[in-house]
Amino acid sequence: MKKNITIILLLLFLLSFEAVIAEDVALECSNMAATIQLKAPSANARCFTVMNSVSAPADKPLSEARLSSAAISLDDYTVAGKIAAEATAFTINGLSSVNTEIYKNATDLTTMINAVNSGSGTSAVNFPVPFLPIQDKTQLFAALPEIIQFSTGTAVRYLTAFGDSGASVDNSSLIYAVQGISQDGKFYLSLAIPISHPQLTTAINPAGFDWNTLPVEGWTPAIAALDTLARSIILR
Predict the structure, then answer these.
(1) Domain that holds residue 155
(2) What's the total number of domains in the chain?
(3) Is residue 173 scored above 50 in pLDDT?
(4) HSE-up of 98 (CA within 13 Å, CB side)?
């Protein structure tokens, strides 16, 4: 009898241990003006901040501007040679002070989110979808859009890639993107993570490709897991 009780207690301990291991880890980063918090698969992440916005030099691309932000680098999703896996909170005031073209991403996204919340849903998602931080290349497509209601706001989730106009895409350039606005209108959310699918064995024309033909379970990381991460985000 004692042996059976011992075995039962051991099993209960192992189950509770696995539950703790499986529980997402709360991560937070702040630059005093903005704070971002999320639940990630592990604590394998780094916080980095930009305190003040600084315009790019006149002879440099807009991507060299420094934007007031608090960001979490999600090292579990980092892939060498691809876009950095990061969740970032920008202050809308910081965007407005640095450059009108950069700030336009916030105003355009706010307009889109307002239409989404008014009942238009994904029909309000127009290409190109606003994206920060500013990229040097052109947004080539926006596929599989979904609305993400995160803890303190609304966002658009989509797959995209950046490159020269008309360029083909493959697994080396695909991005899972979430762009959102906080409910109070003070913060801009950007989540960008490299993503790939084993059935994309060659470069394709993204504009003419039916992305729904790719089995959803084939994406790495899993889109459902990334959506869960996005929904856990808190901006303040």
Answers:
(1) 24-235
(2) 1
(3) yes
(4) 28
Question: DSSP per residue over the chain, as a string?
Answer: -HHHHHHHHHHHHHHHHHHHHHSPEEEEEE-SS-EEEEEESSS-EEEEEE-S-BPPPTTS-GGG-B--EEEEEEGGG--TTS---EEEEEEHHHHHHH-HHHHHHHHHHHHHHHHIIIIIGGGG--SSPP-SS--SSEEEEEEEEEEEEETTEEEEEEEEEEESTT--B-TTT-EEEEEEEETTS-EEEEEEEE-B-TT--S-B-GGG--GGGS-GGG-BS-HHHHHHHHHT-EE-
Q: What does the block give as tokens for 102?
A: 């950069």
Q: Is residue 103 part of a domain?
A: yes
Q: Is residue 17 part of a domain?
A: no
pLDDT in tens, 10-66: 444 444 434 434 468 999 999 999 999 999 999 999 999 999 999 999 899 999 999
Tokens of 195: 């993503």
Diameter of the chain measured on Cα atoms: 80
Q: Which two tokens stand for residue 76?
A: 């579990």
Give the residue from 103, 93, 147, 97 showing the smallest Cα distance to 123.
Answer: 147
Averaged pLDDT, 108-137: 96
On whether residue 16 sits in a domain, the answer given is no
Whether 128 is covered by a domain: the verdict is yes
